[in-house]
Amino acid sequence: MDARRESEPTPMKNRTTVERKSEREVVVTRTFNAPARIVFEAWTSPELIMQWWVPKSMGMSLLSCEMDVRVGGRYRLEFSYEGSKSAFFGTYKEVIPHSRLVWTNEESEDGAVTTVTFQEQDGKTLLVMHELYPSKEALDAAGTGAADATVETFAQLDELLVTLGANR
Amino acid sequence: MVQYSQARFNASFAALSDATRRGVLEVLGRSDASITELAGKFHMTLTGMKKHVAVLEQAGLVTTEKVGRVRTCRLGLHRLEEETAWIERYRQLWAARFEALDDVVEELKRKEKVDGRKKRK
């Protein structure tokens, strides 16, 4: 690595692709301009996860993150969203440094098994995240992000206001 | 570009390649109908119509619902749009996360360089 590279402009954002492989599976792919060991570190260090897992645009905040990244080890992320708290937790099933992570998600019976692979080529890393849900309904529900929850909340509020108005 | 839809489009085109199935879609465009009614309209056996409906259902063009002994068929054309919207929502969530991850990764790379230089000194 030479010093000149540091002054290069930030490269274009890499594309994130999403593909539904089957009724219960979704695959997300993305390339990162860094070696696999660095990308892997960003997925397995709680302090680093705190910096990216919940971007501002999600409208949520991440309160805490505990991760025991080894086979059988557990993780727990706690969020707050519009005053209510929620948690995301589960167990690591496979941990192969710089190459592969598999974890379960256990906060409900609709939780997915997530497999993340890190493939390095020419100093870049292709990240493939595969999620397998127990049912199509669970996967459909998983696509509902915080933004939609807000829309739903407002829709419910609208309905409530209409009902209240009608009763006057 | 939405890659997931390739298989779905293939299934849709295969479903539409048959005149009876196109006819079924036309009928369902006017009103919902049971398999028995559709079989009668197209002078087919129940089994034959069930097969056609299954192909249309597989392609997401028709949805069916069984109430008691009657299976009602209706157009399911909106499903493609729903799935496209789902994919886009999911993609936006992960794209936002990954942009934040880019920053973390850049910071780690920068630190690694600095540490590397210190070690060489």
Describe the structure.
The complex is a heterodimer of chains A (168) and B (121). The model of chain A is unreliable at 1-8 and 145-158 (pLDDT under 50). Chain A has 168 residues and is an alpha+beta fold. Chain A has four helices and eight strands; from the N terminus they run E-E-H-H-E-E-E-E-E-E-H-H. Chain A has one domain (11-166): START domain (Alpha-D-Glucose-1,6-Bisphosphate, Chain A, domain 4, 2-Layer Sandwich), CATH 3.30.530.20. In chain B, helix 1 runs antiparallel to helix 4. The model of chain B has no long low-confidence stretch (mean pLDDT 84). Chain B folds into two domains: 5-76, Arc Repressor Mutant, subunit A; 78-121. Chain B is mainly alpha-helical. Chain B contains five helices and three strands. The two termini of chain B are 49 Å apart. A three-stranded antiparallel β-sheet of chain B has the order 1-3-2. The A-B interface holds A 1, 6, 10, 13-14, 16-21, 26, 28, 30, 32-34, 38-39, 41-42, 48, 51-55, 57-58, 129, 140, 142-145, 147-148 and B 3-4, 83, 86-87, 89-106, 108-110, 112-113, 116.
Structural class computed from helices and strand pairing of chain A: alpha+beta
CA distance, first residue to last residue of chain A: 73 Å
In terms of DSSP E residues, the strand content of chain A is 35-45%
CATH architecture label name of chain A:
2-Layer Sandwich
Number of alpha- plus pi-helical segments of chain A = 4
Instruction: Compute the number of strand runs of chain A.
Output: 8
| Low-confidence region ranges of chain A | 1-8, 145-158
- As a percent range, the share of helical residues of chain A equals 25-40%
Bin the helical content of chain B: over 70%
- Mean pLDDT of chain B comes to 84
Examine the coordinates and then state which fold CATH places here, giving the name of the CATH topology of the largest domain in chain B. Answer: Arc Repressor Mutant, subunit A
Main pleated-sheet profile of chain B: 3 strands, antiparallel
How would you describe the oligomerization state of the chains in this entry?
Answer: heterodimer
Q: What is the class of the largest domain in chain B in the CATH system?
A: Mainly Alpha
The count of domains of chain B is: 2
Q: How many strand units of chain B?
A: 3
CATH superfamily of the largest domain in chain B: Winged helix-like DNA-binding domain superfamily/Winged helix DNA-binding domain
